[in-house]
Amino acid sequence: MAGQPPERVADIADLAYDEIVRMLTADATVLAGEYKEKTLAGVKKKKRLRHKSLFGDDFAIRESEDTLSAPDSIDAVNRIFYHRGWTDGLPVIPPSDARVGGMLADSGWDEDLLVGAIAPRGGAATLKKIAANAVMAGCLPEHLPVVIAAVQAMIQKRFNLYAVQTTTHPVAVLALINGPLVDELDFNSSYNAMGQGNLSNAAVGRAIRLILVNVGGASAGVLDRATLGSPAKYAFCFAENQGESPWEPFHVERGFPESASTVTVMGAEGPHNVNDHGGQTGEEILLTVAGVLSNPGTNNVYLSGEPVIVLGPEHAAIVARDGFSKQAVKQFIFEHARIDQRWVSRGNRKWFLRHNPKRFENLKPGDEIPVVDNPEEILVVVAGGMGRHSVVVPTFGGHTRAVTMPIVGPDGGYVRAES
């Protein structure tokens, strides 16, 4: 309904009413047959139309075939997968029985185990489907427990995957890795941690995206309605640089033992750089961070949520040297990340008031707008290599909350790479 005037939305609702009633009351078998043949109203088919899975058999639906016969050619397989909307636009590793079996062979997991349903289509995320997408992404077998934990985190109610998958906002799923597996599986937490060049970061992040598309059904322009999207929607996975952090690790802050390895998923925008080469004190650096966070165009401004501050090691060391604990960092940023009302249009003020009356109804002329409701909503992580840069990651706002899950095996014990 994006961009439609209210009267057009009302017309669409009127037209849909009878069909919705019939869907709720008619015989399910009859409806299933009808809807396999149904196309989207008003959408003209094009010669290059992809995403055929939405109108026929599907990687994501329960009754789909277990295997697909295809030519013995990686090029041919990729053409088939691309035109069915089963890729992220880039070539994939064909998930043959042998490759998927190899991914699962030593994991100890039952391939038919249902981890959960992936929104928006409610696709069944069995271990076998998770493994198939991990193969397609280029994962190694030792990456599988990390991908499983990420799926378990994404399906938690407070993460609100349905909204993350279908919004017009450019939200991506950020996966932050903590614990011993960072070194054991060679996740990058240092130079270029959010960039290219590392297998674990790239493959795990990509596997998450392929699962969201192939099991969740969030095909671009169909159920994924992002206006512009973001490069972060290809893969957004990195590890905390615990060795360079002056504070306790992020997963320990969230209640896990340091010996555990975890995945934290966040509904996030792409990273916004914080360039501060001149600041000589922790307060000066944090003031720059707060300034970058004070952006009137983010969801956090009116929906609050949990923006992420990723401090580079040099910035973190200066901040800690000057006596800032992690809690003090959050408090300082909360107090200084404020937006002058001059940068907020009259129309947006009305929009903000409607969505967050608690924050905006008592706002007086001259008052500054806080970016979050309280310091605890600010998440602080240390990552990257040397250099006077940090990153602010705005989020989807209060629609979603970060979820941390332990990386465990079938027995519930923490996974170690050598186990």
Write the layout of secondary structure elements.
Blueprint: H1 6-25, H2 28-36, H3 74-83, H4 97-105, E1 114-118, E2 123-126, H5 127-137, H6 144-154, H7 161-166, E3 172-178, H8 181-184, H9 199-214, E4 237-239, H10 250-253, E5 262-268, E6 272-275, H11 282-293, H12 300-303, E7 308-311, H13 313-321, H14 326-336, E8 338-340, H15 346-355, H16 357-360, E9 368-370, E10 379-382, E11 389-393, E12 403-406
Parallel strand pairs: 3-4, 7-10
Antiparallel strand pairs: 1-2, 3-5, 5-12, 6-11, 7-11, 8-9
Poorly predicted sequence stretches spanning 5 or more consecutive residues: 42-62
Biggest β-sheet: strands ordered side by side in the sheet: 4-3-5-12
Question: So what's the overall shape?
Answer: globular
**Distance between the first and last residues' Cα:** 50 Å
Radius of gyration: 23 Å
- The string of secondary-structure elements, in order, is HHHHEEHHHEHHEHEEHHEHHEHHEEEE
Notable traits:
419 residues; 12 strands; alpha+beta; four-stranded mixed sheet; single chain
Walk me through the structure.
The chain has 419 residues and is an alpha+beta fold. Helix content is 36%, strand content 13%. It contains 16 helices and twelve strands. The chain has helices at 6-25, 28-36, 74-83, 97-105, 127-137, 144-154, 161-166, 181-184, 199-214, 250-253, 282-293, 300-303, 313-321, 326-336, 346-355, 357-360; strands at 114-118, 123-126, 172-178, 237-239, 262-268, 272-275, 308-311, 338-340, 368-370, 379-382, 389-393, 403-406. The strands form four sheets. Strands 4-3-5-12 form a four-stranded mixed β-sheet. Strands 6-11-7-10 form a four-stranded mixed β-sheet. The longest helix is centred in the first third of the chain and has 20 residues, at 6-25. The radius of gyration is 23 Å and the shape is globular. The relative contact order is 0.13.
